[in-house]
Amino acid sequence: MPRGDKSAYTDKQKRQAAHIESSERKEGRSKEAAERIAWATVNKQDGGGKKSGSGHKRTTH
Questions:
Q1: Where is there biased composition of kind Basic and acidic residues (predicted)?
Q2: Which of 2, 12, 22, 45 has the fewest beta carbons under 10 Å from its own?
Q3: Distance between CA atoms of residues 41 and 12, nearest Å
Q4: Taking all residues of the chain, what is their mean pLDDT, rounded to a whole number?
């Protein structure tokens, strides 16, 4: 997935980012800064656009 590609994010995450971006714009931030803050916040809350775990499974023997 190239940088900036938001296809792995859920619709809910995209709505959250849009809402955060709107709030940041109202605070006077530039579009670029507001978008960066919005996606950073979504990533911090949900761990990014991952839909599954890390791919590592731990087994007990």
A1: 1-14, 21-35
A2: 2
A3: 13
A4: 85
